[in-house]
Target: Carboxymethylenebutenolidase
Amino acid sequence: MKKLVLFTFLLANMVVLNAQNLALKQLEDSPRHHEWIKVNNEDREINCFVVYPEISEKATVVIVIHENRGLTDWVRSFSDRLAVRGYIVVAPDLLSDFSEKYASTSDFPNSDAARNAIYKLSPDQVKFDLMVVQDFAEQLPAGNGKTVVAGFCWGGSQSFRMATYNSDIKAALVFYGSAPEKDKIKNISAPVYGFYGGNDERINSGIPETEEQMQAEGKKYNYFIYPGAGHAFMRSGADPSGAAENKKARKKSWEKMLEILAEI
Model:
């Protein structure tokens, strides 16, 4: 059993490493304009990775909230890929100014250390950071005034939660994230779209209750479950050696996401 657990752990980390290496290569080859912007939140500065599309008109801004590993190269690569489709993307590093030693995700020695730090963030700090990022996104001169939020894993939960306290976003895209507290759902004004792997019962077990609560409050909640795909299929599916089910789920959810964004 110990050998099996160790093998599974090593395999998971290998998938992450492969996705990271591929993402870094894609970023290095990208012709699009990338910026690192510091957004002020009282006594803190939030590092934001911003990507601009190569288009001649103003664009909708998509705020991309990272996984529990922080703002990785894979998240930045996803942001760059989304910009190809005509969207400005703002990806905040919510581990910014975590401590004197760790000022950003890249300062952490490994993904486990970043993950441990993520779960030490206070919900209020995350909320206020995202509100400041939203204000920044809305004021971008190249933006058209419309903002959408999308998040993965821990970030998916944050995107769902953001819909409960920010009435300015036009939609919340939740990739394999959990729902907010029941008493917060009544505050949601934007439509929420969920993307889930079929082999992710830890998350999926809560979907029926979430759907019931959203319907009871008259909120729009559409979700899509991809058979055979696991948790984090958007990242795992980017790995050329990844499981076919994750690749298929990544492709289908990407297409569905673009359909949704085109209607906003």
User: Anything to note?
Assistant: The first strand starts at residue 33 and ends at 41. The beta strands are 33-41, 44-52, 59-65, 88-92, 143-152, 172-175, 192-197, 221-226. The two ends are 49 Å apart (CA to CA). The chain has one domain: 7-263.
